[in-house]
């Protein structure tokens, strides 16, 4: 698989995990746990956006 394809797969994985965490946060009854899950989901979304942006510019984040 190409580097771009691998990076795109990683971005999809990060976004899927962020979605899972958001769904878990919605089900959480403890407000602190809900906040932790939402924060982690937000960080994963931000990371996926950064990696996607690097991929769009043709930059390899592993270099």
TrEMBL record:
Check the record and name the Pfam families matching this protein: DUF6381 (PF19908)
The organism's superkingdom is given as Bacteria
Comp. bias (Basic and acidic residues): 17-48
Region named Disordered: 1-63
What name does the UniProt record give this protein? Answer: DUF6381 family protein
